[in-house]
Amino acid sequence: MSINRTYTGKLESRADALTLILACTSDLLRPVNPETIANKDRLVVEHGAIFVIVKDRSQRIRDDQFWSPSRRFTSGIRYYRQTTTRLYPENKVGSLTDDVYDFKDGGLIKRTFQYTSADNILYLVVSYHSSDEDRFDELTTPSTDTKFASLSKGVEQLLRNPVRSTQPKNTPHPPSSSSSTTTTSKKRPHNNDVPDSCKRKKK
């Protein structure tokens, strides 16, 4: 079965991720609860889909897609590009803009953020969006969504605290079999927070 998204929008900052987590703890949104997930359930990988997962450390959440190695932003968000084949440890090297990887033509971008609350509950925020800049710009950021205006003080308080946990190296986990091959994408994903090492240099 498919796992329903928590929110439709984009994840640009730590404030966005914390807003969604607080919205779930305040019953404004419904998170993905591991107790309701079966082993065969999968995240629905679509443009604008964001999932807030109350993470069981012993459980794997899958999306049945292939992804590049991650790059970490200063905000604590990790960034992945969709590829056409599974990557093994020996070929997980290089820049996300190199031709080392067979990026999927028209593929998505995945971003993840992990946070452990004061009562030791682990939250994983996973977002997917198009690499097309215009489509990305059309999406709403949770921290600017008026539905969550009442959470702003709580988010500000959390932002003053350090991130309480490190990101997993690659979440959700990739599938075990290869997917169909498509041509390599040439378009750079939009991101105001992409590290310099992930940006193409203009010639």
UniProtKB/TrEMBL annotation:
- Annotated region Disordered: the residues are 160-203
Q: Where is the composition biased (Basic and acidic residues)?
A: 190-203
Pfam (any one): Gti1_Pac2
What are the recorded GO MF terms, alphabetically? DNA binding
Q: What is this protein called?
A: Gti1/Pac2 family-domain-containing protein
Species of provenance: Jimgerdemannia flammicorona
